[in-house]
Amino acid sequence: MVSHPLDFQLQAGFYATPELLAVFDEKRKMNRWLQVEAALARAQAELGVIPAEAAREIGDRADLDHLDLELIKEGYRQSRNSLMPVIKALRAACRDDHGQYVHYGATTQDILDTGQVLELEEFLRILYRDLRAMENLLIDMSRAYRDTPMIGRTHGQQALPVTFGLKTAVWAGEVRRHIERLKSLYPRVTVGQLGGAVGTMAALGPRARETAQRTMELLGLQWRPPAWHTSRDNMAETACFCAILAGTMEKAANEIFLLSKTEVAELAEAPPGSMMSSTMPHKRNPVLCQRVAALARQIRSLAGAVLESMAHEHERDPRLLWSEWLAMPQIAIYTGTASDCLVRVLEGLIVSEGNMRKNLLLHKDMVMSEWLLFRLAPGMGRTRAQEKLHALLPRAGGENIGLRELLAGDEEIGPLLHAEDMEFLDHPERYTGLAAALVDDTLAEITAQRRNDPEVLRG
């Protein structure tokens, strides 16, 4: 029986990708715990803490395929401990009394935290790959539409001309900063945990440091003292990073959603298999953009739960741990899924340059008011020019009188404007300032930073 949309089988893929679900699959989670136990046993055997035969036996049995799953299920029906039913099943599977060395000197939180780090490591590598793919698409779009004029909008209203390439370059700049954040975050997150019951490592014996270092080395992780049982700042940073990234993705998805409205029609979401309306065949619904927005809201909400889970009491506070452990997989799945959705949107995005130009000319020469203001300012002063334009522009809009006619007939403004000025009013596409150069600058900076990107993240 499944009840959460993440686990739906018939209506699968709405809020997760198969790849991300596999990362956080229950059996893979438990096998990561077993992987940590096997690494701990091997490290202890190498250091002479436990018999080598015991470590080999534990390593051979540390997989759910070798354990009694019914015993584990029954253990969870009877126990409230997050790990012990799995540990008991592993001990029972080991021959010749070697099971007594399973979980030797560790505490439950050590194993669960390190398992979470292993799955977050895999998630962050997937996210890094997808963000670089997103950045590639935005770079290509910024170059392709570097000079494509469109109307810029502020306060939801038409403002001044911009270029579509500048809009996508803004998105690309944000994605690049997220990639840099992720590269910085990754080594802080990929730190395992082996502190014992209260972080003193007492039960791990005199070779506790070497045991912890070797265990994490075998797992491909780092170890740093002291134990972070109650120091959840790296988990909170990961959650907040995902929330900030989700904000960028939602902004881009929302912009595409807005610009795809019928009355605007400058963009259209059209990835393979894009959603047509169930009853209105003329509609193409921006479903993936909507999904990004929905996921972003969940991510931000769950990130708040992880932040609140930082305020641990004493040396362990399961109330807050369980809250974090519940939230982190969802945050990761939702963030990775939103990234996947936005990549697919960008891959199939339809850009209507014709509609961009049509909307740019919707208010005709009215969108050139800023240019007019600064063109007139040297001759009559900025304040006076602003007063005059504030009086004339409403007349041009409300009395259906051409702006050029009003300008030419004004005794103060008319003498200041030449024929070429009047002609320029008909070409708002020329008034894009440094838009193209800013695209070039942004892409040059991104390209320089990309040279330092590893193909795969490493701690």
Description:
This protein has helices at residues 18-23, 26-46, 52-61, 69-78, 84-93, 108-144, 164-189, 208-219, 233-259, 287-308, 318-348, 353-360, 369-380, 382-398, 403-409, 419-424, 435-450, and strands at 149-154, 157-163, 267-268, 350-351. With 459 residues, the protein is mainly alpha-helical. It folds into 3 domains: 16-101, Fumarase/aspartase (N-terminal domain) (Fumarase C, Chain B, domain 1, Orthogonal Bundle), CATH 1.10.275.10; 108-360 and 436-450, Fumarase C, Chain A, domain 2 (Up-down Bundle); 364-426. The strands form 2 sheets. Strands 1-2 form a two-stranded antiparallel ribbon. Strands 3-4 form a two-stranded antiparallel sheet. The longest helix has 37 residues, at 108-144. It is elongated, with a radius of gyration of 30 Å. The two termini are 39 Å apart. The model has no long low-confidence stretch (mean pLDDT 93).
Nutshell version of this structure?
The protein has 459 residues and is mainly alpha-helical. It is 61% helix and 4% strand. The protein has 17 helices and 4 strands.
